[in-house]
Design a protein that fits this description.
single chain; 258 residues; alpha/beta; three-stranded mixed beta sheet; 6 helices; 15 strands; 27% strand; binds glycine
Length: 258
Amino acid sequence: MTVAITRQVSAAIGECELTHLPRALIDVDRARRQHHAYEQALVAQGCDVLSLPPQPELPDSVFVEDVAIVLDEIAVITRPGAQSRRSETLSVAEALTAYRRIWFVEAPGTLEGGDVLRLGNRLFVGLSGRSNQSGIMQLRAVAWPYGYTVSAVPVAGCLHLKSAVTQVADRMLLVNPQWVDASIFGQFTVIDVDPDEPYAANGLLVGDRLIYPASFPRTRLRLEAHGVTVVPVDVSELQKAEGAVTCCSLIVTASERP
Ligand code: GLY
């Protein structure tokens, strides 16, 4: 069973954190409809969606990916680099206790899940404005006993590592080469985003299908030319909050809690 933990859109999403985008008016009702359709796309891929209630006082709380790293054996609750996001962690930790033993990143570490790209037993962590060396070292200390390696990756020009690169199929990455050097990741087929779509590198692979923003048709053609099956979702309002499709869920392969 695969569980997708999501959180409904906050009424305050218009006051979200922004790093590389100018602020634009967000239609909250439209964002909620788009988020619901995203949840339905997860259901269609076979996920049980655990949709947590909205947190009206936490603008970015829909982006649950950033507050936890869910590995097969444990979950690491992050300490977001954005101060305004630190109160998002406890309720997600509570939800995850049903599935995993929990570890917490502590000060001075900062870490956000959007910076963590898992490729098998290798965890790549973006050294972004949100995740620091201490956070990466803490993740390494917790994860290595379970056989994971943890490597820091320079990333520039975007919010998180997974703004710049995601896995889109077995042995295949989608990359914005302006923001990250894909040679770091080893032997993968690399698809570059269309140069007119710099934000297009974030897709959510569930099983053998890619949940992917409808707003990047040129890059979608590149994906389909490589045999990727794309499930398009309209997330335009969430994109105004610098959100992407991986950010809006935590995918948990459910089993008895170890
Ligand atoms: N608005 C997403 C973030 O900055 O965390």
